[in-house]
Amino acid sequence: MVKEKLQIGVIGLGKFGLRFAEYLVELGHDVLGLDNNPVHIKQAQANLTQVYLADAREKEVLEQTGVAELEYVMVSVGDSISASAMISMFLKEIGVANVWVKASNSDHRKLLKKIGVDQIVIPEDLAAKQLADRITHPGFVDYLPFDHDLIIHELTITQAAGKNLRQLDLTNRHRIQVIAVRPGSGAPATFIPNPNDELAAGDVLVVIGHRGQLDNIKL
Prior knowledge:
By secondary structure, this protein is of the alpha/beta class. The protein has helices at 15-26, 38-44, 59-64, 81-93, 106-115, 123-136, 165-168, 170-174, 211-214, and strands at residues 7-11, 30-35, 50-53, 72-75, 98-102, 119-121, 140-144, 147-156, 177-182, 190-191, 204-210. The longest helix is centred in the middle third of the chain and has 14 residues, at 123-136. It is elongated, with a radius of gyration of 22 Å.
C-alpha cells in the first residue's frame, strides 16, 4: 500500500537528484527542490512543487525554505563530500526526521554514518549489484528493502504442470513463499493464490525467498 502524500525535499538537482524528485512527483508526492545551479533549477521547475535557487551549505537557507518541516530530505550534491557532509549535519541539527544521502564512495559513506544520517545510498553499487543478480540468477525480479539477501524471484512451471501449490509444498520443502501466480495464458496474475488451483505449463510463480534457496529450484 502506498503511503499518503508526503512532503519531501531534494537538495541537489543534478541527474540523479532530478530524476529521483520527478519520480516522487509521479508517485503523487509533493517535492521541494533546492540547488545552487540556475540550469538545474530551470530544468526542475516544470515538475516540482517548489524550487529554490540557493546554497544549502548555509544553515539559514535550510530554515528559511521550510526544509526543517519536511519528513524526508534526500541530499544529492554530486561528488562534493564536504558539501554533502555539511548539509547533512545541518539537516540533523534543524530536526529533519529522515535524512537520506547519496554517497559517492565508501569513505563518503563512513563519514555520513558518523554524522548520523538515516539512509546512505550509492546508486552505482545498487545498479551494479542488481545487474549482476539479473545475469547470474535467471528469474530475479527485485530485492526486498529490509534484506538484500531476500529477493523476489520468478519460477516457470514445466515438470510440475498438473499439480497445485499444496502438492508442491514449497514453503516447507524450500523455505520460499508464493505471493502470486501469473498464468502462461496471459490472464491477469492472481495474488495470494488458491493452493488447490491446478498449475499449467508456462505458468509463472512469483515467490519470495533467500537467494541461496532459489538457485536450484526447478518446477
